[in-house]
Amino acid sequence: MKIYTSRPFFTQLILGAASMFAANVSAEVKLPNIIGNDMVLQRDMPVPIWGWADKGEKVTVSFAGQSKTTKANENGKWMVKLSALKAKEAPAKMTIEGSNKIILENILVGEVWICSGQSNMEWSIRSSMNAKEEIAASNHPVIRLFNVPGHKVHPKPQERLAIPSDWKVCNPDTSSNFSAVGYYFGRRLLQELDVPVGLIGSNWGGTRIEPWTTLDGFESVSELSKEAEKVKSYKADTKVGGGSPSAIYNQMVHPLAPFAMRGAIWYQGESNGGEHMSYYHKKHALVNGWRKVFQNDELGFYWVQLANFRKPNVRVVQDPKKEFSNPAGGDGWAKIREAQTKALDIRHTGMAVAIDLADAHNPNDIHPRNKQDVGGRLAQWALHQTYGKKELVPTGPLYKGHKIKGGKVHLSFDHVGKGLMVGKKTKLEPTAEVKGGKLEHFSIAGEDKKWVWADAAIDGDTVVVSSKEVKKPVAVRYGFTMNPANANLYNKDGIPALPFRTDDW
Known about the structure:
28% strand; 4-stranded antiparallel beta sheet; 19% helix; 3 domains; Rossmann fold; alpha+beta
């Protein structure tokens, strides 16, 4: 960043003398951290540029042939909005001029996304699978990275980050500590869209969803009135922590707004893992609030359904110390996964399923190292829905409905893609079709609500489920457990089916 003074010499001399007699002299134009050298600006939508200056001071922003002028308001804040820009890989300069002149360099125009959540989003490339090779290959000059440093909170929305940060050009020297999921998401976008990509990381391991949610978000959902009232009670000196509603948002997200961006990716939920529909309401609040503060009702929002974790639930018990057999399921994260799925009723959202990505040899690791497939599956959703690549199926088979015929339950699905298959996912390898394989992890129950493991078979674009033990079935469950080990229904695009149940018992 280059800063120049633009005042004539005598004007500076007079003002310098005046400062001997006045407490307040004209302040320099200043910018938030998120606006700086090496940044990526969002294409095809208005782009806010803002900062601070003296009350009434005239500020002019010039970029890409546009020149916008405004005056700082009574609080010393100013903002202009550049008209929609076209994608541009060639580096450009921006000039901001008031009492002083700021020149920002190496600016690109493309797609901007915020990458947020708890530790599985915070998890860096250097700690993930194939780290050495991935870091060495991360030389992408048109991907730019901005990471919000530290874990900071505040009772009131803040205009500046607690710890300064800046944009980095993505290369092996800058990429290793950035979010692995975010990087792999952005890399896929670059490969498919061939435009610059800006990624903003704001994460904090072990955090719940509430501290990331805005007051407006809480107020938009009647079921969360208690949370809204608590946030409204905060004063500037109220002590808040990493679990306090809105406290992380106030210090780690609000200072970024309203930077123009296309969307958000979100990996969080483990710390709310004991919840059910309450998480569904909180997801609505999160999305509503962020869309408002970033001034984008079409902000894409894609999250990760929680991965498989802890003791596998298998049909045939092989090692009692590691596995158990419970056809009813419903344990652990089964219900929060259901809430995450239900939240897909929010417009322009999607969810990457991850129940096949944990390490089968280390099921107690809450941080699956395969972040490549997580980022890739999030990008699959964005490419399909946000960017209109309808030839891509956005996700795996999603339960749509069922019919009961002659003692068998016939299940239908959305997102079948190229067809259904029995599949097997091994580390980073593409999902392999298991020819002649048997579907696992379906269970079935009759009116007595007693669950037994079921036989299931693919029939065209449907799955037929039955059991000799249940003559008159009424409900089916699939993968509805903390660790649905061996769940193996996929579409032929290689993405697993989402866990589901047809009952509400």
